[in-house]
Amino acid sequence: DTRGVPPRSRLIAGSANLLRLAVRLAPWAYNLAVGTPGISQLVKWTMGFAPGRSLPPVSRLTLRRWLQTRQTGAPSAAAPHGRVHLFVDEFTDTLDLPVGIAAVELLEILGYEVVVPEHVDSGRAQISKGLLREARELASRNVDLLANRISADEPLVGIEPSAILGFRDEYPDLVPQTLASKARTLAGNTLLIDEFLAREIDRGRVTPATFTTDAKNILLHGHCHQKALASLEPTQQLLSLPANYAVEVIPSGCCGMAGSFGYEREHFDVSMQIGELVLFPAVRAAAAATVLAAPGTSCRHQIKDGTGRVARHPVEILRAAVRPR
């Protein structure tokens, strides 16, 4: 309030809208700018980002647009297990289209109707930069839009841990007191997609019969929000569902990215040093055939920049493991 919001913080807080604009107008131009040596260095210098950090390309279209161009949801006859409400977070929407598609297709294959309720962004970027008034507006809007639609039978399910877990952590304290009760109820019916599918496995609705019997070794790095606020056990259970999939958890702390922290010029070296503590050596030591799993978009980016290896979201791995019909 005294000094104003630094331009870089304002840029990061507004990045979701800027990325959607890039996808809508000219994704190829954006990707050319951030991926071309020289041009990308100028972009990073202007934004206050580290020269050694790569910038993620945007998808060819948003996940919301992809959903609009197909037949939305599975027909009720093909959804014997009911309906789930998918929260299309701002990261998956623009940067991780394949992850979003895999999540929708996997849920439908397993017998669920997938609907995307009206909602706004999670507010994670605003929270991370201390713009709590803006985050409060987003949180309040989401509680207003979702509280009466979400229930234990039709939960809100999210792909990106940092976005969806805000409903359970910050939202009940962040919204005005008049919405606090609704926010707490909503929080109780909000799940990571890993948690939701693990719950359905326990109920016997999702079984190994749907998946391959091929053998794979999977190395899993957990997202900090998930490790702090939830658990990695559902993710392990999910990835272990195919009969011959073996999952090993990397005993790592933070990957070092921590949202925008690892992008910022003055924090880049520390970010990479954190990755070198446990995560990067474990990934480098993994056999080439080992599948790398990481639920967080920032974690996957950090792994790629630090080791050159590509990590996948657990739902991508499980979607690829579905036995051909």
Given as residue ranges, the uncertain stretches (5+ residues, pLDDT < 50) are: none
Oligomer: single chain
User: What is the end-to-end distance?
Assistant: 59 Å
Alpha-beta content class: alpha/beta
- Describe the sheet with the most strands: 4 strands, parallel
Fraction of helical residues: 40-55%
Spatial ordering of strands, largest sheet? 2-1-3-4
Explain what this protein looks like in three dimensions.
The chain has helices at residues 7-13, 15-25, 27-35, 39-47, 63-68, 90-94, 97-109, 124-128, 132-146, 161-164, 171-174, 177-188, 193-202, 224-229, 233-239, 268-277, 279-285, 297-307, 314-320, and strands at 83-87, 113-115, 156-158, 190-192, 216-220, 245-249, 291-293. The radius of gyration is 19 Å and the shape is globular. It is of the alpha/beta class and 325 residues long. It has a four-stranded parallel sheet. It has a three-stranded parallel sheet with strand order 6-5-7, with no helix packed on it. Helix 13 packs across helix 15. The chain has 19 helices and seven strands. The model has no long low-confidence stretch (mean pLDDT 95).
What can be said about this structure in brief?
The chain is an alpha/beta fold and about 325 residues long.
